[in-house]
Amino acid sequence: MSRSIPRLIAKIGGGTVHVYPTKPPSCGRSACNWRPLPVFQAYSAYTAHLDRRNADMVRSPDGPDFILSEHTFAYDGRNLAWESPEAMVAMLCTSAPPPARSAAGCCCGGARIAAGRSAR
What we know:
It contains three helices and three strands, in the order αββαβα.
């Protein structure tokens, strides 16, 4: 198990988790409280309707508390950030940038990725 996994689990606590773009959370033997988006594999949200369902869940108070970004590559060279474009924009617009980039801010505000939900 990676040394970062215990720190990640401590940060998440009892919060709910979705992993973007494709896999259920791997938190070692500890059970994560997985709350996937309706179409949890982003490449499967290939219609506007499916993409919107994911985006709606991201914006919903019932959505996951944390969205973890999985470092992966598309086998066919696609840009994974835009597999489900409306959901990606929703994630970016409801996320806090990493501390090192906080001065840049987000074009649409909010706080969520890695930092968890903020008071809305």
